[in-house]
From TrEMBL:
Biological processes annotated in GO: DNA repair
Organism: Pelosinus fermentans JBW45
Family matches, as InterPro entries: HAD-like_hydrolase_sf (IPR050155), HAD-like_sf (IPR036412), HAD_2 (IPR041492), HAD_sf (IPR023214), PGP-like_dom2 (IPR023198)
Gene Ontology molecular function terms on file: phosphoglycolate phosphatase activity
Any Pfam family matching the protein: HAD_2
Protein name: Haloacid dehalogenase domain protein hydrolase
Classification of source organism: Bacteria, Bacillati, Bacillota, Negativicutes, Selenomonadales
Superkingdom, taxonomy of origin: Bacteria
A GO CC term attached to the entry: cytosol
């Protein structure tokens, strides 16, 4: 069976559901500094709709500055006390195992800043050994983080799977196809991809590889 060289796979959204982690981090900062957190569904829908953070803070009656919130967010969002709220999406282990038949290498490429906690979380969920490589790119004031990490690789065929503009832009710059996961951090209308699926277990990888 023909195999492509790489599947470049995003973590937050395609593999992990981060709704509870994001909301609890946001809520704790609001309660600490003064304000009234909006409810979890409203918060998540606003994030998925790309509503700017300052608008969310305004609706939360936040009593501190935007800069103060952002710094606390960066400091806290990847701490283990918040990572524990993440949930593994359906059939992830089976899906990654099945993809071994279709790709020479499955590489996780994620916008995380704390690599040690990232590895801890992958081991916690039992999926570390299903990946051939783990690349973490800082998301702090860095444009094109994923592309910069991947542009030096040599390959003939590859595909990107992700749920944000970072993933679709990376695929475009690399000149490869992209699969958008629509049940992640962005609504489908904000993504420009070659293929769309709500969850990665729904991807017919054999069919997609046959035409790329």
């Amino acid at each position: 069976m023909r195999k492509i060289d790489y599947i470049f796979l995003d973590l937050d959204g395609p593999i992990l559901d981060g709704k509870l982690r994001h909301y609890n981090c946001y809520r704790d900062i609001i309660l600490k500094d003064g304000g009234v957190p909006i409810d979890i569904d409203q918060y998540w829908n606003m994030k998925r709709a790309k509503i700017k953070r300052d608008i969310i803070l305004h609706q939360s009656q936040y009593q501190n500055t935007y800069e103060n919130f952002l710094q606390q967010w960066i400091d806290n969002i990847e701490k283990k006390e918040y990572l524990k709220f993440d949930e593994l999406k359906p059939y992830i282990s089976d899906t990654l195992s099945d993809w071994r038949d279709f790709a020479k290498s499955i590489v996780l490429v994620t916008m995380r800043n704390n690599h040690d906690n990232l590895l801890w979380q992958l081991h916690h969920f039992g999926i570390y050994n299903l990946l051939d490589n783990v690349i973490s790119c800082s998301n702090i004031k860095q444009e094109g983080g994923k592309y910069n990490e991947l542009k030096g690789l040599s390959f003939n065929t590859a595909i990107v799977i992700g749920d944000t503009e970072e993933d679709t832009i990376t695929a475009e710059k690399l000149g490869i196809k992209v699969i958008a996961i629509t049940n992640g951090l962005r609504e489908k209308k904000h993504l420009c991809a070659d293929y769309y699926f709500e969850e990665i277990y729904q991807i017919d990888m054999k069919q997609i590889i046959s035409v790329i």
